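2024-03-11 09:14:02 DEBUG pipeline.ingest accepted 1 chain
2024-03-11 09:14:02 DEBUG pipeline.ingest length=204
2024-03-11 09:14:03 DEBUG pipeline.predict start
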Amino acid sequence: MKVLNFDIEGFRSLRKISWSPADLNVIIGPNGTGKSNLLRMLELISISAQGGLGKYIQKAGGMEPLVWDGISDSIRFYIKSSKLLPFWFGDKNWLTYGVELARLGKSGTYSIGEEQLLYFHRKKPKEKVEPFAILERKKMTGRIFDENRKELIASEESLLEDETLLSLTAGPFMINRHIPIFRKQLAEWRIYHDVDVSLAAPRR
């Protein structure tokens, strides 16, 4: 997977940012400018695909310390990615994935408000293309589509209020090959907050 763009809203000190990472990125800046919070957000995104979101937020002390300025009513992230499969071309095939973690009042709890995984395919460069939804969720209503656009309704009993539909895409949900591949690649991200690269580092 190649990430083309991140949009993040309402997370810690990141009120609203958009970032288009290159193949190699160096993030620099003074203390308190959000560098560590960007890594924490990437970690949260990966955990959301693993099914550990509820435990992660509980361990962090609930939503209040995670939302922007302690007052935001939601955390949102949006990812645009390409090269999910070897034959994909960056200008012809890509996915977008967005999730809203909606804070419940002023409490520390939350629920998944909206979630959507869209597939884009164009036959020619710069051709206008309409996205094809392959996973959609609004609160406790979820839908998954196979590659022929056949719809599968996820029953309310099969959903968890505090976990993404993407994290639950196993077994009977595997009706579209893009979904488990995307989930696996997202879940395999590893975020290291402290890495010793000095001359005395063991890895050298």
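2024-03-11 09:14:41 DEBUG pipeline.report The chain is about 15% helix and 30% strand.
2024-03-11 09:14:41 DEBUG pipeline.predict end
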